[in-house]
Amino acid sequence: MVALYVTSVEAAGKTALCAGIGRHLLSQGMKVGFIAPVQLSEISGSDGHKDAAFIKEAFELRESTKVLCPIRLSRQDLWQSLTDGVADFTRRLKQAYARISRGKDIVLMEGLSDLGVDNVSTLACYTISETLDARVIIVLRCSATLDPSGIAQVGRKLGEQLLGVVVNSVPESRTEAMKQEVAVSFQKAGVRILGVLPEVRSLLGVSVQEAAQVLGGEIVTCADNTDEIIESVMLGAMTLDSGIEYFSRKANKAAVIRGERADMQLAALETSTKCLILTGESKVSAAVVRQAEDKRVPIMLVKQDTSGAIAGIEEALAKASFRSPQKLQTFESILGGYFDFKALHSELGLSA
After folding, report:
1. Cα dist. 168→80, 163, 175, 312 in Å?
2. Distance between CA 113 and CA 115 in Å, rounded?
3. Segment 254-305, tens digit of pLDDT
């Protein structure tokens, strides 16, 4: 049985990588477990279990999310546990891991972000990987200032426990060039490159259902098709060109249109539209309903005016999470083409 700890320098796709690797290994007939060994209680907007609940479902795990997220501490308490109270911390960690790893071939662990930047997260990585004899993958977000020197320093501390790095969210047009650039720079630093993953716009989107929750919207058609991903948003402007040509400018969009403008709604439905968001109190045209049902496009009624609905969707897009079956399927496909699974199997001693 082996353990794999996935961490990152910043928010860069740890959950996605855990989920994608796990699904690949499951498809190879392996028994895969998951644990988020420690979480920081200061992280707002989440009870810390949402990502674990998503992976629990993706891996068909029996354990509760509380079992998958065993230790939740404030940053100060975690630092105390990793220094003065390390014996008690490692005891709790081993107990939690023993419960999760029973009967598994591999356990994937989602670690904290800010590796090499924040002392608490960095010490947590060192302590957890050493205590559980886990190999480590570091996820990096593509940027113009991507520098291997900091990772090399972390790698020297981790030694042979560092399996390699993954560079995520690379503009598709730069994927091959970035692959060559990082291969040279990281190899000089003695760090293995496991993957250079292109940015795919659908992974940055939100589902129709998520948008409905943000806006408090009512779905009146195709309620069974709300897992579709919205990648962009368009306003049905009061202009002469608000027709098919206008709405063809963006694909996989939500079109926000006043309820009485059936002409614009029908035009939007002739293009790549994932959802019609209708504002105002007007009744939906029967012709629009028929067309939406034929195209399998949900219609959402909202109380906000058009500017408020646009703002709500843009806010949802800015906070988009990975927790979507469609996004996972897309990311699995990306890993299949750009991640070095051969090296993963070889380094972890897993049968291919």
Report:
1. 32, 16, 10, 27
2. 6
3. 999 999 999 999 999 999 999 999 998 788 999 999 999 999 999 999 999 9
- Rg (the chain; Cα; Å): 23
**Are residue 117 and residue 168 in the same domain, yes or no?**
yes
- Residues whose CB falls within 8 Å of the CB of residue 286, separated by 6 or more in sequence, listed in order: none
Hey, is 13 helix, strand or coil? coil
Determine the Cα–Cα distance for residues 349 and 2; give it in Å rounded to an integer: 8
Q: Can you read off the two tokens belonging to residue 17?
A: 């990588």
Q: Using CA atoms, how far apart are residues 186 and 239, in angstroms rounded to an integer?
A: 52
Whether residues 329 and 242 fall in one domain: no
Q: Are residues 39 and 178 in the same domain?
A: yes
In this model, does residue 316 exceed pLDDT 50?
Answer: yes
> How far apart, in Å, do the first and last CA atoms of the chain sit?
15
Q: For residue 7, which phi and psi values (nearest 5 degrees)?
A: -135, 180
Whole-angstrom Cα distance, residue 341 to residue 344? 5
Q: What is the CATH number of the domain that holds 259?
A: 3.40.1390.20
**Cα separation, 235 vs 254, whole angstroms:** 9
- Total structural domains in the chain? 2
Show the domain range for 256: 206-318
108 closest CA partner among 83, 134, 85: 134
Model-level pTM?
A: 0.85
3-state SS, one letter per residue, for 24-82: HHHHCCCCEEEECCEEECCCCCCCCCHHHHHHHHHHCCCCCHHHHCCEEECHHHHHHHH
- Side-chain-facing half-sphere of 39: CA atoms under 13 Å: 22
Pair of tokens at residue 277: 């968001």
**Per-residue pLDDT tens digits for 199-243:** 898 898 999 999 999 999 999 999 999 999 999 999 886 555 568
